[in-house]
Automatic annotation (TrEMBL):
GO terms for biological process: defense response to virus. Pfam families: Cas_Cas4. Mg(2+) or Mn(2+) required for ssDNA cleavage activity. CRISPR (clustered regularly interspaced short palindromic repeat) is an adaptive immune system that provides protection against mobile genetic elements (viruses, transposable elements and conjugative plasmids). CRISPR clusters contain sequences complementary to antecedent mobile elements and target invading nucleic acids. CRISPR clusters are transcribed and processed into CRISPR RNA (crRNA). This is CRISPR-associated exonuclease Cas4. Its EC number is 3.1.12.1. The gene is cas4. It comes from the Bacteria. The keyword Iron applies. Residues 15-190 form the DUF83 domain. Keywords: Antiviral defense, Exonuclease, Hydrolase, Iron, Iron-sulfur, Manganese, Metal-binding, Nuclease. InterPro entries: Cas4_exonuclease, CRISPR-assoc_prot_Cas4, Dna2/Cas4_DUF83, PDDEXK-like_dom_sf. Its cofactor is Mg(2+); Mn(2+); [4Fe-4S] cluster; iron-sulfur cluster. GO terms for molecular function: exonuclease activity; iron-sulfur cluster binding; metal ion binding.
């Protein structure tokens, strides 16, 4: 386990990493202000996770499948629930598997979330996790992810960023990305267009007052 300690005593939910990746404001609204609104995307994601969660542990062909595994890693200040952990009964190797609604993305955030799960497992079960997997529902594809040093470093930095955001209690301004806002479940509560309009009107007022 890498040496890593956060100043604040608040645990970061694993899901906050994903929300932070999408938009820091969304992360703060959900985890600091407890705001949540369902839209098509989140509803679909929840159905997928309910299906994954509903299974009981089973063993097939030398692999034990544990579903809906709760984790709480005190050294990392992380908490959450893993979709699936696969345990090879011959080698003892344990592998977190994360289910995603969409398809593989260019950004690293799915891998960062998976790595955070691996770090939780390592701390809780005193093991070393070498790799994990992401199952992309839309394209029915399983991607193997190596939990290497560089991914670990990026993940620890990301966890820290989220922890800082949540401990300040400050909700960041809307992001400047209309496409992402359109797919965001909090758009009606966040009103990013209103902010953009206000911003442009104060910009225009600023020009005329100079
Ligand atoms: S609507 Fe846009 S700015 Fe607001 S929380 Fe969602 S993604 Fe962020």
């Amino acid at each position: 386990m890498m040496d890593f300690k956060l100043d604040d005593s608040r645990q970061v939910p694993l899901s906050a990493l994903q929300h932070y990746a999408y938009c820091p404001r969304q992360c703060a609204l959900i985890h600091n202000e407890q705001v949540w609104a369902e839209n098509y995307h989140t509803a679909e994601g929840q159905i997928l996770h309910q299906r994954v969660d509903s299974g009981v542990p089973e063993t097939r062909k030398g692999i034990r499948y544990e579903r809906g595994v709760s984790v709480s890693a005190e050294q990392l200040w992380l908490t959450g629930k893993l979709d699936l952990v696969e345990i090879d009964l011959v080698t003892g190797e344990q592998k977190p598997v994360e289910y995603k609604r969409g398809k593989p993305k260019v950004e690293d955030w799915d891998r960062i979330q998976l790595c955070a799960q691996a770090l939780c497992l390592e701390e809780m079960r005193n093991i070393q996790v070498l790799e994990g997997a992401i199952w992309y529902w839309e394209v029915r594809r399983r991607e193997i992810v190596s939990i290497d040093e560089s991914l670990r470093d990026v993940t620890l930095a990301a966890i820290k960023s989220v922890q800082i955001l949540l401990s300040t209690g400050v909700t960041p301004l809307p992001i400047d990305d209309k496409k992402r806002c359109k797919g965001c479940s909090l758009i009606d509560l966040c009103e990013p267009d209103k902010f953009r309009r206000d911003k442009s009107s104060s910009y225009v007022n600023g020009i005329f007052s100079e």
